[in-house]
Specification:
This protein has 150 residues and is mainly alpha-helical. Helix content is 61%, strand content 7%. Helix 1 (11-31) packs across helix 5, helix 2 (37-47) crosses helix 5 and helix 3 crosses helix 4 (65-77). The N and C termini lie far apart (38 Å). 17% of the residues are buried.
Length: 150
C-alpha cells in the first residue's frame, strides 16, 4: 500500500485551522453588534461610496445579485441600509447606508483591526508582511475575487 499523507502534512490544513479560528472569533465579535460577517462586508463595501446599485455591489463582493438582495433585505430591516428608486427606471434602485449604518462601520472596522492584532500580533512585522504578501499572491494567481463572507 502506498503511504498516506497525514492531515497536518498539508498547508491547507494549517491555513484552514488559522482561518477558522480568526473567522469564528470575528463572527462572534460582530454578532455582539447584531451583524453577520456577510453583512459587515456589505456595509464596508457601501461605506466608501454614497450610493451603489445592487449589481455593482454584487460585482464588488463577488456575489450573485440574489445573495446581495437577501443581504440588502436583512440590512434594510435592521435600519442600516436604505433603498432609493431610480427616477428614470422604476425597476432599478440603489443602496446606501443610513446614518446608523454609516456610524456602525467604524465600530465594526475597529473589531476587525482588534481581531487581526489578536491573531497576527504574535508575528514579527517581517513575518506578518511575508504572510500577507504570500496570501495575496495566492489569491491573485488563483483568480480569487469574491469577498470571504462565511
Amino acid at each position: 500500500m502506498p503511504p498516506v499523507s497525514s492531515l497536518n502534512d498539508h498547508t491547507g490544513y494549517w491555513l484552514r485551522m488559522v482561518s477558522n479560528a480568526v473567522s469564528q472569533e470575528f463572527a462572534r465579535k460582530v454578532a455582539n453588534h447584531d451583524v453577520t460577517v456577510a453583512e459587515w462586508v456589505f456595509l464596508r463595501a457601501l461605506y466608501d461610496r454614497n450610493v451603489m446599485p445592487p449589481s455593482v455591489l454584487a460585482e464588488t463582493m463577488g456575489m450573485t445579485r440574489g445573495a446581495i438582495s437577501k443581504l440588502a433585505d436583512r440590512l434594510l430591516a435592521k435600519g442600516l441600509v436604505e433603498r432609493t428608486a431610480n427616477g428614470e427606471d422604476r425597476r432599478a434602485h440603489s443602496l446606501s447606508l443610513t446614518e446608523e449604518g454609516r456610524g456602525k462601520v467604524p465600530v465594526l472596522a475597529s473589531l476587525a483591526d482588534q481581531n487581526d492584532v489578536e491573531y497576527f500580533g504574535v508575528l514579527t512585522t517581517e513575518e506578518h508582511e511575508a504572510l500577507n504578501r504570500i496570501l495575496k499572491a495566492l489569491a491573485e494567481r488563483q483568480g480569487l475575487k469574491a469577498a470571504p463572507v462565511d
